[in-house]
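U., I forgot to send this yesterday:
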Amino acid sequence: MGDKKWMIWTLTIGFALLLGFIIYTANSPGKNWFGPLVAAVPYGDKVAHFFLIGTMTLLLNIALKARSIKFGSVKLLLGSVIMFFIVTVEEFTQLWNDNRTFDWIDMSFNYLGILVLGSLVLLFPSKWRSKF
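Result:
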């Protein structure tokens, strides 16, 4: 694996591990270290959903070289589709966790982050994208 591929995949996996850690602490009673930080910012929870999920999606789309898949006549970025399914499942698991609260607005900000930040990869020149 080339240096750039190694670097982007390391960054993507590292960010995914950070998200996993944040979700783990949010699901664990007494371990939610990020909750007070997010609560200190107006609409911090929504901002966090948008930027954390959106950044993860952007990194994944870069790592996958903006690969797309077709659903009928619509082309969708593969990383965005993957993240759509992951965040949907994760948000719905909150229905069965006493320490979390399912929220359609959180889900909407997840999807907005996927759409807006995940699509930024399309602004990169294709010759630049292919170098990863």
